[in-house]
Amino acid sequence: MYAQVLEERKKSIRRAADAETSPIRCGARSVSGAVSQRACVYCGARVVLNPITDAFHIVHGPIGCAAYTWDIRGSLSSGSELYRNSFSTDLREKDVVFGGAEKLAAAVDEVMRVHAPALIFVYCTCIVGVIGDDVEAVCRGAERKYGNRVVAVKAPGFSGGKADGYRLAGEALLQFLLPHKGRKKRGGINILGDYNLAGETWIIKRYLEEVGLPVVSTFTGDASCESLAHAPSARLNIVQCAGSMVHLAQRMEREFGIPWIKASFFGVEDTGTSIRQAADLLGSAETRRRAADLTRRESERTRRLLEPYKARLAGKKAAIFVGGGFKAVSLVRQFRELGMETVLVGTQTGRPDEYEVLGKLVGPDTVILDDANPAELERFLRERGADILTGGVKERPLAYKLGIAFCDHNHERRHALAGYEGALNFAEEVNRSINSPVWRYIRG
Amino acid sequence: MLDLTPKSVSERSALRINPCKTCQPVGALYAALGVHRCMPHSHGSQGCVSYHRTFLTRHFKEPAIAASSSFTEGASVFGGGPNLRAAIKNIFDIYNPDVIAVHTTCLSETIGDDLNSYILDMSIPDDKVVVYTNTPSYVGSHVTGYANMLSGFIRCLADSRAAKNGGTAVFPGFVNPGDIREIKRMLALSGLSAIVFPDQSDVMDAPMTNTYVMYPRGGTRLDDIRALGGCGRVLALGGFACAEPADVLDKKCKVPYLVLPLPIGVAATDSFVAAAAEVAGRPVPVELEEERGRLLDLMLDANPYFYNKKVAVYGDPDTVIGLSSFILELGMRPGYVITGTPGEEFVRRVEALLRDYDVENCTVKAAADLFELHQWIKNEPVDLLLGTSYGKQIAKAEDIPLVRAGFPVLDRYGHSYLPIVGYQGAIRLAKMIADALMDRQDRDCADEDLDVVM
Predict the structure, then answer these.
(1) Is residue B409 part of a domain?
(2) What phi, psi does A400 have (nearest 5°)?
(3) Domain limits of chain A?
(4) Same domain, yes or no: B172 and B92
(5) Cα nearest neighbour of A41 on chain B
C-alpha cells in the first residue's frame, strides 16, 4: 500500500548492480513532506561537541532544542559529568520580540558566577539568526570579561543538513585548538570521530597504547578541555566516523601539519587493518611487530569465539540503515564475518565515494538507498526478506512491527560495538534479537 | 554523578538547567496522532520533526510518523509557503492520509508564515482535509502545543451547524494510551457513549501484527470531530491540556463544557465518575463502586508505609496536580511540587490541595526546572521522587527511590499500556509507590530487622 516511491526519490535508490553505471544521488535535501529519518544542522553540531565532558553547552533558543538533546547520547566520561546536564536560554516570546542577546549574556554570567568553566559552547538554533542576535559579540564580550573560551556554534537547523552541523562543530573545535598551535610535537595519535559510546574510545585507545602508540587526545569521546588542548602536538589523526570528522581532520592537517587516515574499528577485519595501518604510519619496527602480534592474537581469539554465533546466524539476511557511509561499509564486512549477507544498505549522510565502495562490496541485488523514509525501508526490507535491521532509535520500532530483528548501532547502544570485544558484543546482540523466543509466537 | 549540582542555590533568571518541559510542537504532534489516519506535519526545519519523532518513540517504544516542510535558507527568508504546498501534495500522493495536521515551529512563527492563507490557496483533494494550528515553541510548553492542536482541529472541523445530538465528548488530556483505554472503560461501564478526542490508544500502543501499518486502527474519526459541534456537553479532563480547546468549541458551536481534574486518585476519579453518571442519567455502576472499594482497602492496608513520607512531584501540570492530590490522600506529604510549564494557575491549584490537607512547608513552583529541584532536595531531602525519567539522575545522586509516572518515561517498558487514571490506575500507582518505599526499607534495614511479613 505504501510501496510507491516518489519520483524525486528514485535517483537515491539503486540495486548495487546498477549503481556503477548510474551512481546514487546523495547529499540532496530531503523532499518537503517526506517522513525522513534525517536531522538538522544543529543536531549534527550538537552530537559532535556534546561529549566534551567539562565544557558548558548552552543552547540558545526555545527549550525544545535543549530538551531533545539532554543526556541522550550514551558517551561515557572518565572525568567530569558536566556535559550530561542541559543548559539553555529557554527563549520566551518577549525575547523573540526584543532580542535574546541580553538573556544569553546573562546566562553566561550565571554560568560563570558558579562554575567558571574553561570552555563554553553557545549553539545558535533556528530563530536566533532570524531575530538578529549578535551571538558572536556576546561570546567575544564574555571572553574579554572572563578570560575563558566562549565559542559560538552558528547552527540554525534550516541552514543545511546534519553533515553541515558536523562541519560547524569541526570549525568550533578548531577555534578552541588554534591558540595551542605552537605546542611542541610529542608524537602520538588523536582519535577523531569516536564518541565513546559504551566506552568504545577506551577500547580503541587501549589497543593503540598496547602496541606502543600513545593517544594524545580523543574527539570527542571522553574529551576534556585539557586533553583537547594537546591535540596539535600529535603526529597522526585517525578518523573513525568519517562523516562527522573528515572536515576537522583536513583542517588540522592544514593548520598543524597532522596527516590523517580513515579507520574503522567495527568488526575483526577492519579493527586489525586500522591498528596495523596506524602502526605502519607512525611506529617503529617494534610497534609494527606488536601490532601484528596483537591483531593476529585477538582476531584468532575473536574468530574462535564467533564460531558458535556463526552456526546460529549463517545464511540470515541483514539490512543496514545508519548515519554514515564508512560505518555502513564496516557493517557489511562484519555481517559477512558472521556468514550473513547484506540485502539492503542505506545511510543518512553517505558520500558518493562511500556509496561506490558499498556498491562494489555487496551483492548485485542488494538495494542501496540514501536518506530513506519508513515507507521505503518497509518496502525493501520486505522485498529483500531481511531478518535483521541495524540502525538507530527511529528504525527500531519499525523493524519490530515488521517482525524483523533489530540491533541498535546508534546512540542507544548499551554495549561497546567497537574493537574485538565489540565484534563479540555485536554478534551477541544480533544473535539475541534474531533468535529471541518471542519470534516463535509472532511469526508462527 | 551530577556532582556538579551545588547545594547553595544561586539566583537564575536567564539560564535554564535540566528542563521539566519541552516545546509546543511535540505536544501538537502527539495530539494529532490521536486522530485516525492523520499525518502530523511540522512546518519548520527538518530537525524538529526528527527530534519529536525520536522523543515519542523513546517514550512509547512505537514508531511515530510525521512529515516536515524541510525549511531551507531560502524558505526562512522568503517564507515557507512553497515548501508547505509541495509537502501537502507529496504527503497525499505518497502516504495517503485522510487528514494532515500542520503545526508551526519557532522558525515559521518568527518569520511570520500565515498558514491560513497558504492552506486556503492550496488545491486539496475533495475527500481530504488539512487542519492547522500555531505552536510557537517559545510560548508555554509541549502541553500548550497539545491544547493548541486540539483547538486547531476544532476550529477547522467541528461543525457549528451539526444537528444537536445531545451527545457527550470527553477530552482525555495529555495521557498515555493505557489511560485513554481506562477512561473509555469507565465511560462504557457508566453507560455513557462518548466521543473521545483525541484517542491515541490503538495508535501509539498498536499491537504486534507482523506488519507495519502507517495508520493503525485507533484514533478519533474525522466525522466524530465534525460531530463535536453537535454535542450537548464536553468533559474536559485536565485544565492545562483541555480547557482551552473546550472553550474554543463552546465559542464556535455553543457546546457547554465542564473542566475536571485528570482522574488521578480517589477524589478526582470520584468527580469524573460522578459527572459521567450524571450525564448518563444512571447511578454509578457497581463495578466502579467495587473498584473504588478495593482501592480504599489497599490504601488502608498499606497506610503505615505511606504515612508522612515526603515526596517531590514533578512533570506536566495536570498530571502533577493529580499525583499530588493522590499522595495527599495516601497520607504522604508533598515537599516539592513543580512543573516546567509556565502558569500560576498551577500554583493556585496545588496550594488549594495543600490547604485542604493542612500541609505546610511545601515548595510549589511553575516554570521551574529539575536543577533547582535537585538543589532544594540537597538542602532538604525527600523520601520519594514521583515523576518522569528525568528525575533518575537526582534519584541516583541522592539515593532516593523514584516512581515513574507522566511524560516522558524513556527508560522503562510497558508503562504506556497501563493506566494511572481511574480507581484501577490509582491501585497501580499506590502499588508502585508502596513497592518502591518497601523495597527501600528492605534494602536498608539491618539483617535482624528484615521481615517476611510486612
Answers:
(1) yes
(2) -60, -45
(3) 7-28+314-413, 41-180, 189-292
(4) no
(5) B47
The answer on B229 and B178 residing in a single domain is yes
Residue type, A259: P
Q: Is the dihedral of CA B402, B403, B407, B408 positive or negative?
A: positive
Which residues in chain A have their CB less than 8 angstroms from residue B396's CB? none
**Any B CB within 8 A of A439 CB:** no
- B239-272 core/surface letters (b: 16 or more CB in 10 A; e: else): bbbbbbbbbbbbebbebebebbbbbbbbbbbebb
- Say how far apart CA B152 and CA B136 lie, in whole Å: 14
| A430 Cβ neighbours under 8 A, 6+ residues apart | A309, A313, A338, A340, A388, A390, A405, A407
Strand order in the sheet with A317-322: A13-15, A367-370, A341-347, A317-322, A388-391, A405-408
Compare all CA atoms of chain A with the CA of B367 and give the residue at the minimum distance: A90
> B100 and B40 share a domain?
yes
CA A6 – CA A225 distance, rounded (Å): 46
Instruction: Kindly report the pTM of this predicted structure.
Output: 0.95
Residues in chain A, how many?
444
Residue B229: CATH number of its domain: 3.40.50.1980
Pair B165, B227: CB distance under 8 Å? yes
H or E stretch covering A192: strand A189-194
Do A149 and A174 touch, CB atoms closer than 8 A? no
Superfamily classification of domain A41-180: Nitrogenase molybdenum iron protein domain (3.40.50.1980)
Domain annotation covers residue B141: yes
3-class DSSP assignment, residue B333: strand
Which residues of A273-370 form beta strands (DSSP E)? 317-322, 341-347, 367-370
Q: Do A33 and B46 touch (CB under 8 A)?
A: no
User: Is the domain of B224 the same as that of B313?
Assistant: no
Domain at A7-28+314-413: CATH code = 3.40.50.1980
Note whether A126 contacts B21, CB cutoff 8 Å. no
A189-292 folds as Rossmann fold (3.40.50)
Q: What pLDDT digit, counting tens, does each position of A170-190 carry? A: 999 999 999 999 888 888 999
Chain B residues 160-219 with CB within 8 Å of chain A: 206, 208-214
CB B20 within 8 A of CB B314: yes
Considering the domain architecture, whether residues B50 and B133 belong to the same structural domain is answered as yes
Q: Is residue B65 within 8 angstroms of chain A, CB to CB?
A: yes
> What whole-number distance in Å separates Cα of residue A6 and Cα of residue A321?
19
- Indicate whether B438 belongs to any domain: no
On the question of a common fold for A7-28+314-413 and A41-180, the answer reads yes
- Which range marks the domain in which residue B230 is found? 168-204+216-288
Instruction: List phi, psi (to 5°) of B256.
Output: -65, 155
Q: Is B363 a domain residue?
A: yes
* pLDDT range class, residue A1, cuts 50, 70, 90: very low
Structural domains counted in chain B? 3
Q: Are residues B40 and B87 in the same domain?
A: yes
> Lowest-pLDDT range, A15-29, B12-26, B35-49, B203-217?
A15-29
Q: Which residues pair with B260 in a beta bridge?
A: B237
Chain B interface test: which of A9, A13, A59, A63 (most B C-beta within 10 Å): A63
Whether A33 sits inside 8 A of B69 (CB atoms) is yes
| Tens of pLDDT, residues A48-73 | 999 999 999 999 999 999 999 998 77
Q: Is the ipTM of this complex over 0.85?
A: yes
Verify that B320 and B385 share a domain, yes or no: yes
Taking the C-alpha atoms of residue A190 and residue A124, their distance in angstroms, rounded to an integer, is: 28
